[in-house]
Amino acid sequence: MSSEVAVSKTGTRLRSPRHMLADSATLGPFLTLLVLFVLFSLFIPKFLSWRSVSGIVNAATPIGIVTIGVTLLMICGEFDLSVGSLVALGGYVFAMLLLAGAPPALAALLAVALPALFGLLNGLLLVWTGIPSFIVTLGTRSIYRGIVWLFSGGTLIQMLERPAVLALFNGRLDVLNELLPKGANFRTSLIWFLLAVLVFQYLLTRTTFGNHIFAAGGNAQAAAAQGVNVSRVKVISFAFSGALAGLTGILLFSQFRTVRVTTGAGMELSAIAAAVVGGTALNGGVGSIWGALIGVLLISMLRTGVILMDIPFIPADNFEAVVGATIVGAAVLNTWLGQGRAKR
Amino acid sequence: MGRTQDHSEPLVRMEAIVKRFGTITALDGVDFEVEYQQVHALLGDNGAGKSTLIKILTGVYPPTEGRIYFEGRHVRFSSPRDARALGIETVYQDLALVDTMSITRNFFLGREIVRRLGPIPWLDMRAMNERTRSALRDIGIEIRAPHEKVGSLSGGERQSIAIGRAVHFGAKLLILDEPTSALSVAETRKVLSYIENAKARGLSVIFITHNVRHVHMVADAYTILRHGRKVGTYYRGELSERDIADLITGERER
Q: A287 is in which domain, residue-wise?
C-alpha cells in the first residue's frame, strides 16, 4: 500500500491527517466550525455571549430541518429545488387550518403530509421520466409555489392570537433559558431540529434503508445488482424531504405568526449550500446528518460574525457573498479530500 | 465441499443458442456447457459474442432460439434476478461495488443483518464486520479493516471482495467478466488464486477474457467463439497458449 499508510500491531491503521479527514465527511467541517468559533470569540467583541450564540442557533434551526432532507437526497444522488416552495405550502396549510378552527394536531399533520405527498410526486416524476431531479424540481419549485398562490389567493396570513400550539412548535425554550445566564434566548425549534437530526442520523446509518441510500448515490448499478430497489429508495427520500420542508413551514409560522407566498423562497439553495459546507458530496454517495447540522451552524455563525464585525465593504445585506465564498471553499476542500480517497 | 446432486448432467448446458438483434445475428447456434467444479474460460475477440452469450445466461436478454439447462433443469430467465436466485452470480469489473461505502456495507448490501432493540430495527454492524472478515478469510482474502472504504482498495482487492461475497452467499456459478484486464501481474496472480479457492469450495467459474496468458494457469476448459459461432471447446493440456491465440483470431482453423 502507499507509503503514507502504516499498519500498527493491532491491525488498525495509522493514517495521515488528510486521510482521517477524507474518511470522515464530517470531521473537516466540525474542525472549521470550532476554529471559526474560537477566532470570532477572540476578535469580535460581543460575539461570545449567550445572546449571540442562541441567536445563531435559532436562525439555523428552520433551515437546518430543510437541510436534513436535502442532504438525504444529495447522498442518494438527487437534488430537490422545490423545498422552499414546500415550506410555504406547509406554512399555509398549517395557518389556514388553525384559522378555520381545525384541531392543532390535525393542522400540523396535514401541513407535513401534503408537502410529503408533493415530495413523493417529485420522486415519481424523476423515476417515471428519467429526467434529472435538478430539472424536475426546478419545474415543480415554480409549480408548487403556483399552487400555494392559487389556494391562498396570494394573500398574506397573519395571526394575531397566540394559541398554545405555536409555543410548542417554536416558542421560547424557557426551561433551558432559565438555567443559563442572562441573554440566552433559545427556542423550541431547537428541540424539533435535534429530534430530526437524531431520527435521520439513525435512519441513514443504522437501517437497511440508509444503507441503500448511500448505495443508490454511490453506485446505482452496483446497488441494483445487489437487489436494491434504487427507484423506491429515491422516491421515499423525496417524500421525507417534502415532509421536513412542511415541518419547517410550521416552525416559521409558529415563530412569526405570518406566512406569505414568498415564504421559504431561496431556502432550497441555502440548504444545498449548508449541506455542501457540511461535507456532503455534490455527486452523491457521501454525506451525513451531523454534517448538515454543522453546515447550518457554520453559515449562521458566519452571518452573525460578519454582521458584528461591521466591515464597511461587507454590509449585513451583502452577506450572500460570504456564503458564496464559503461554499466554493468547502467544495474545493471536499474535492481535494475526495482525491485523497481515490488515490490510496 | 461435496455436492449431493446427480452430476450426470453438467451444471450449465446451453443448446443451439441463437440471438438476433434486428438483422444482426450476434450468436448463431452456440452450444456451451460448464461442468460442476470447473473453471471454464470463454475466449474470443471483441464482437465474437462472449458477452451476448453471458447476458443470455444471466437473464439480461432472452435468447431468440435455443434452450438453457441449469443443474439439469430447463430454465427461462426473465431478469437477472431470476438467474441470481438460482445461484448464478456475475462480477463485473467496475460495477460490482460502491466505492464510497465500507467493505462490510458492500459485502452485506441488500442482505443486511438487522437486530431489533424492542420495536426498533438496528443494523448489526458488529456481526456484519465479523462475518465479512471471516468469510473473506475463508477463501484466502485478508483485509485490514472491514470498516475501510472500498474506494481506498486496489483493483485486485476490490475484485476479491466481490468474488468473496458471491462465494459466501451461496453462488453455484461465478461469472467473471475480464477480471484481470486492469490488474498488475501480482494482483492478477492473487485473483487467480481466489478463483481456484472458489473452485475448491465446489463452485464453477466462467472466466471471460481475451487474454490467454491469464487464463492458462487456472482454466480446466476453454470455449472459443468467433463471429458468433463456436470454434470449439478444449480441455486443459490439449492446446498451447499459442494455439489458443491463433484460434481466437482465426489464423488457424482446427
A: 45-330
pLDDT digits over B91-115, tens only? 876 668 999 999 999 999 999 999 9
User: What is the C-alpha separation between B158 and A24, in angstroms, rounded?
Assistant: 21
Residue A342 lies in a domain: no
Residue B240 clears pLDDT 60, i.e. is over it: yes
* Cα separation, A78 vs A137, whole angstroms: 10
When mean pLDDT is compared across A15-24, A128-137, B219-228, the lowest value belongs to A15-24
Angle at which helix A50-75 crosses helix A189-206, to 10 degrees, equals 30
Alpha helices in A178-229 (DSSP H): 189-206, 208-218, 220-225
Domains of chain B, each with CATH number or no CATH: 1-87+172-254 (3.40.50.300), 98-170 (no CATH)
Start-to-end Cα distance in chain B = 37
CA B226 to CA A100: how far, in whole Å?
76
Q: What percent of chain A has pLDDT over 90?
A: 70
3-state SS class at B121: strand
DSSP secondary structure string, A42-72?
HHSTTTSSHHHHHHHHHHHHHHHHHHHHHHH
Tell me the average pLDDT across B30-37. 95
Question: A-B interface: how many C-beta pairs under 8 angstroms?
Answer: 81
Q: Is B184 on the interface with A (CB under 8 A)?
A: no
pLDDT(A55) > 70: yes
Residues in A closer than 8 angstroms to B111, CB to CB, are 226-227
Query: Does A14 lie at the interface with B, CB-CB under 8 angstroms?
Result: no
Residue A338 counted as domain residue: no
> Nearest C-alpha of chain B: how many angstroms from A115?
26
Helix (H, G, I), strand (E, B) or coil at B66: strand
Neighbours of A257 (CB within 10 A): 18
